[in-house]
Amino acid sequence: MRPGIVAVAGEALVDIVPAPVGGYFELAPGGSPANVAVGLARLGVPTRMLARLAADPLGERLRTHLAANSVDLTHAVAATEPTSLALVSVDADGVASYDFRIDGTADWQWSPGELAGALDPGPAGPVVAVHSGSLALTTPPGAAVLRELLAAAAAAATISYDPNCRPPLMGDPGRVRAGVAELLATADVVKVSAEDLVWLLPGRAPADVLDDWLGRGPALVAITLGGDGVLAGTASGLRARRPGRGVAVVDTVGAGDSFSAALLAGLHRRGLLGAANRAALRAIDATSLDDVLDDAVAAAAITCSRRGADPPTAGELAGRWQAARRGS
To answer: pTM for the complete prediction?
Structure first.
């Protein structure tokens, strides 16, 4: 794996998920940015988590989970507020929905001083990319602080962004659209789901959104289409449509986060992250783009095939490809 750290900024919360039997609930580590951090680390990318982790038992569980997956917590904040919670419901098709308990919780209380030195180099080299999204960039008061971090980081690092819309908490889609437009001018890599777009930009076709967003600044935009794969494009004019991977879906929790992690891991492996490589990222060739997208789709499919936000390791992802090739 090439040197260079990917920093992930945002929420690390606890999912309360239905148990397989008995009508009970289980506690599981979650939060979109935290899931991306775990996914990156499992794929061999040096990963730093910028999160506010509570000192309560649930916060300690999150800290243990991240550390056990080799996520660097050197710059995580020891927060005095309680851990955020997400109540997860899964329908008959395995599609997850969320009901959050976040008032006054740890994830949203960022102050600028807490991020001092957060992007300093580490043993694995400089920070070459910063990823964020979801509630972290829309929930005050900390959202403004993290947005400022991304703007400052763009001078040296690739900026990766996933709106990961949560309508019950994000409020007016018009206000969210304005924030998305602001971040599109900063971001290099953008991942968004077709489900997000139904709420954010109702009536707009994914292909139309793809062209629009690529004209606003990003080098690469990927629109995930659930079981139908992904539609993607680059600022240089490439367009790609990659198919989904057939799996028996257990649930969709964390699937989009696994896609983001594998997408960034593929770009990291090819030396396309970091401000110095911005031109090379914009000029990615069609074969490389297809390969990166296929890995990301496979990572999401693997996550859908098991319970909760459980992204694949590099070995599992490689094994999935070998099995797919044997079946072709």
So the answer is: 0.94
